[in-house]
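Researcher: Sequence recovery benchmark, item below. Answer with residues only.
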């Protein structure tokens, strides 16, 4: 049984078909890459999986064999499907550690001190401990992206959904982000990562899906997918020469 099974996800906004019958599955510990042109439905797919703000018009999602059909957003996160957003969503006026504490489920905070201990350990793991008491709005883009990932990890996901974690990063920071995602994956957490940075997708994904106009245009081994003439035509263009 797959860890995450997505079957026929469909969503329209008025006349616009944002997702049409998208299906895939991932196994425990797998990394799935998700690419596609702007507006092809990538973020909408994450919205539908997590029901933030609403679920799909049609389709089924199962996590560990359990249907998400009747679950609300917070129950889905608690069941282990946790996302980060495409834009920074930290609370810039709160300190870095407070940002982690507010995202920790109550059961992982047996007491205030113990909760701080868990949060500090997570921050240390991702080289953010030195920033713990700084307002998160002041720590720079790369550290804020790492902080968003840490706050997601504080929710103890089975599957982590990352929406463009490398957007706006320099080349060395992209490399560091790849290493960081590998580090998360090595804990046994499955990852679905949306990116336009193809080098990141090639470095991480076991499986790559390309969406176009809300439909799966291509899927499979990442190196084959980026050379697929339909993908080059619709999305990559001459960028495919670089990979
Ligand atoms: N709440 C909404 N209401 C109306 N239209 C929406 C809504 N959310 C998304 N859309 C539309 O659905 C389509 C898919 O958007 P989505 O954000 O999923 O694209 P994306 O693949 O993530 O693009 P990008 O690479 O630019 O982030 C777009 O045409 C977008 O304008
Ligand atoms: Mg998007």
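Model:
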């Amino acid at each position: 049984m797959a860890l995450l099974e997505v079957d026929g996800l469909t969503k329209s906004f008025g006349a616009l078909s944002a997702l049409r019958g998208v299906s895939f599955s991932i196994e425990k510990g797998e990394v799935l890459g998700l690419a596609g042109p702007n507006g092809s439905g990538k973020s909408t797919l994450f919205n539908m999986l997590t029901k933030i703000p609403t679920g799909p018009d049609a389709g089924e999602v199962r996590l560990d064999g359990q249907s998400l059909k009747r679950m609300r957003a917070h129950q889905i996160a608690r069941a282990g499907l946790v996302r980060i957003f495409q834009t920074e969503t930290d609370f810039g006026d709160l300190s870095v550690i407070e940002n982690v504490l507010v995202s920790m489920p109550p059961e992982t905070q047996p007491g205030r001190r113990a909760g701080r201990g868990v949060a500090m350990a997570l921050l240390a793991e991702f080289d953010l401990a030195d920033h713990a008491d700084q307002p998160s709005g002041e720590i720079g883009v790369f550290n804020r992206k790492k902080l968003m990932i840490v706050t997601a990890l504080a929710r103890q996901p089975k599957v982590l959904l990352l929406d463009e974690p490398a957007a706006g990063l320099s080349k060395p920071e992209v490399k560091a982000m790849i290493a960081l995602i590998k580090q998360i994956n090595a804990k046994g957490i499955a990852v679905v990562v949306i990116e336009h940075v193809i080098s990141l997708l090639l470095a991480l994904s076991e499986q790559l899906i390309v969406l176009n106009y809300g439909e799966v245009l291509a899927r499979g081994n990442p190196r084959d997918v980026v050379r697929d003439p339909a993908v080059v035509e619709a999305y990559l263009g001459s960028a495919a020469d670089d990979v």
